[in-house]
Amino acid sequence: LADANNVLRLDKYAPAGFWDDMKDGNQWCKGADGGWYCVKNDLAHTVLYYDQKLMDEFKYTVPTTMEEFKTIALDMAKNHPGYNVGHLGNGEIYQGYLWPSGCPMATAKGNKIISNAKDPKCTRAVTLVQELLTAGAFKKEGSFSADAQKDNQAGKMLMNIGPSWWGDYVVKPAGSFGIPAGRINIAPTPKWPGETKNWSGAWGGGVYMISSHSSPAQAKIAAEMIMYSTMDKKFVVSADMVTYPAFPPSAKLWAADRAKAGYYVNGDNAAKVFYDSSLLIRPNVTPVRFNIDSFVDAQGADIAAGKTVADAFA
């Protein structure tokens, strides 16, 4: 976590244009004084992964709103039992539903962090997820469980809201969901009622910081390393840069590289959705200033153990 007493303010170490380009994905790193105290290396914004073959077979239209997502999920649970729209036993509910809904569990307000589990934007997500879990549309086991691997290797995943690295590390690998090329497509995270944007949540993403105890020479070298890691065109599409870059010009190169890889049904569409959604990480969570990971992990474990979503969220 960023500690203003030990982290160097970085504004002067990069040109103004860099900070302007980074502003949408780098809000976590802004201090209460308006300065930049870290730089995001990569983003983990959520998108909707869906199996195009199953959507066509079941005659569903890709949902653009959470109401449509719910309607499809309930119909699937009733008419196609055994299929799923995701798993909940890891961090899925918070990153994919509570965060995009606008639930203020770790929201910065000046020097304070606001947490209000009773906010309507929290309770609506809890209610929706519980309804779909009860209906059998969601599986209570986490996405990294043996049960999830067994289900989804058998082709049971209809839809799944997951982060930008989900495709490379969860959906595609043979040792995980193992869904073959030519079946998965990408859409924006569905929009919640009353919202004007398809807000994303996020699941991960690293940050660079420089110690305030660094000498001027050390700080200069560290800043140059950060600029290289976020901006170098060859590096961001290399095997070393395997997740979505936070610097938008680099992200476009990454997305274009993934589009050419041939895994997604429509690579150009996937690239566009990845990029557009990266600009819509909802700014109601401030993980650099307040770590909510322990809560998220405990919540997922409680759901996997059979607790209701409301009890796990309490």
For the terminal residues, how far apart are their CA atoms? 24 Å
- The counted number of beta strands is 7
* Percent in strands: 5-15%
Instruction: Compute the average pLDDT.
Output: 89
What share of residues is helical?
40-55%
- Mind describing the biggest β-sheet? 3 strands, antiparallel
Shape: globular
| Order of strands across the main sheet | 5-2-6
Q: Which regions are unreliable across 5 or more consecutive residues at pLDDT < 50?
A: none
Radius of gyration: 20 Å
Task: Please identify the structural class as seen in this structure.
Answer: mainly alpha
Number of helical regions:
13
SSE order in H/E notation? HEEHHHEEHHEHEEHHHHHH
**What does the oligomeric state look like here?**
single chain
What order do the helices and strands come in, and which of them pair?
Blueprint lengths: L15 H7 L16 E2 L5 E6 H7 L7 H14 L12 H10 L5 E3 L2 E3 L5 H16 L10 H8 L5 E5 L2 H6 L12 E5 L18 E2 L7 H16 L1 H4 L11 H13 L6 H12 L14 H12 L4 H5 L1
Antiparallel strand pairs: 1-7, 2-5, 2-6, 3-4
Helix pairs in contact: 4-5, 10-11
Summarize this structure briefly:
By secondary structure, this protein is mainly α. It is 41% helix and 8% strand.
Give a written overview of the molecule.
There is one protein chain. This protein has 314 residues and is mainly α. Helix content is 41%, strand content 8%. It contains 13 helices and seven strands. Strands 5-2-6 form a three-stranded antiparallel sheet. A hairpin with a 2-residue loop joins strand 3 (107-109) and strand 4. Helix 4 (92-101) crosses helix 5 (120-135). The longest helix is centred in the middle third of the chain and has 16 residues, at 120-135.
